[in-house]
Task: inverse folding
């Protein structure tokens, strides 16, 4: 019994716990471009990661860190080349091995905002009619498509590129996070380039569900 | 906050999915649709939500360094770094962003019209929906200064 506990303790001490920061973060210079805490200096050269656990699906993170696809075609909003569409930070993103990516993703998923409210968006999909309505809000009333890629009726990619692509965003982003982003982007980013929309909850939920349903057919 | 009329209109759509699909097809799908020749006037009830629609107070505002930075940070995404209408999104839009250096057009628009287009967005003023509403992002004061900055870019006044 004693020995058992001793061995357990030993194992715990040698294998660092999953919530500790993996060494790749320092070694690969992730902090040169990303903030892992809201206290770190800004503006950063890449998107903030201190709320990664609220924002991303873990499977997407793991996949992205091993074989990244470009999400922001003209670069991150702070990139000096953003306005001309020629980002200085090279694309696509640097890669990690399978094991590194698993460690880093597990760690990233432990990063949360304090007082973050979940359960705002249920997982009932929009009815066909409600989806058509939400699509109109997205494309016409709010003009989201002017800055974001989405899919048209025959599944072709179309839309602006100054905002992150929203194609297959359902695999990437958590519904509650998209809702909170639309309601109060300043919680995540003091000054983005996206207009503030001041949506009521019901509209924000509908648009969230629509955005996350923009899915390429496999 | 959302307009009742619109909600009612959209609620109707919910019960007639086929109708809404059909409507979505003819009313055009906003900007970014691949049918550039089709430019349809939006129905009056479908207007984005913006706080107050009271008539703007016309005043000539100073263009400051902050005004230029605001334009650079937000407007260049579509209107381009020098306001020529060639921002990174421009190739993907059905209706091209206005060239803010083009005096011949901007002379035909009053400062109030420009103010309203920026504050309420294209759709609300009978222009293309790809021009977003900035009324929740900026105070009126900032929007006035953006109008003055556009007047500087076109080196023109409303005739």
Result:
């Amino acid at each position: 019994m004693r020995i058992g506990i001793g061995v357990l303790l030993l194992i715990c001490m040698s294998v660092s716990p999953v919530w500790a920061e993996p060494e790749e973060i320092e070694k690969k210079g992730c902090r040169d471009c990303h903030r892992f805490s809201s206290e770190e200096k800004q503006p950063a050269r890449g998107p903030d990661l201190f709320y990664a656990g609220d924002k991303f699906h873990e499977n997407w993170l793991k996949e992205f860190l091993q074989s990244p696809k470009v999400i922001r075609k003209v670069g991150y909003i702070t990139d000096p080349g953003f306005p001309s569409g020629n980002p200085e930070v090279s694309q696509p993103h640097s890669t990690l091995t399978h094991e590194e990516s698993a460690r880093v993703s597990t760690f990233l998923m432990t990063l949360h905002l304090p007082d973050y409210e979940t359960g705002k968006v249920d997982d009932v999909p929009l009815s066909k009619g409600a989806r058509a309505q939400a699509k109109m809000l997205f494309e016409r009333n709010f003009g989201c498509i002017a800055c974001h890629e989405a899919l048209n009726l025959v599944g072709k990619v179309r839309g602006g590129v100054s905002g992150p692509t929203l194609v297959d965003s359902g695999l990437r982003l958590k519904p509650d996070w998209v809702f909170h982003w639309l309601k109060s982007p300043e919680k995540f980013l003091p000054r983005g380039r996206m207009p503030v929309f001041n949506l009521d909850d019901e509209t924000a939920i509908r648009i969230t569900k629509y955005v996350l349903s923009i899915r390429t057919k496999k | 906050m959302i307009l009742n009329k619109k909600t009612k209109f959209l609620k109707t759509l919910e019960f007639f999915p086929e109708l809404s699909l059909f409507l979505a097809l003819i009313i055009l799908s906003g900007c970014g649709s691949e049918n550039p020749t089709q430019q349809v006037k939006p129905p009056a009830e479908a207007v984005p939500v913006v706080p107050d629609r009271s008539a703007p107070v016309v005043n000539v505002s100073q263009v400051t360094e902050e005004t230029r930075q605001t334009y650079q940070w937000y407007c260049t995404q579509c209107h381009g770094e020098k306001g020529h209408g060639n921002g990174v999104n421009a190739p993907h839009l059905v209706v091209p962003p206005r060239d803010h250096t083009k005096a011949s057009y901007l002379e035909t628009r009053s400062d109030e019209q420009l103010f309203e287009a920026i504050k309420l967005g294209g759709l609300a003023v009978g222009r293309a929906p790809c021009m977003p509403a900035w009324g929740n992002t900026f105070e009126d004061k900032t929007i006035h200064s953006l109008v003055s900055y556009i007047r500087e870019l076109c080196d023109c006044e409303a005739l």
Observations:
- The mean pLDDT of chain A is 92.
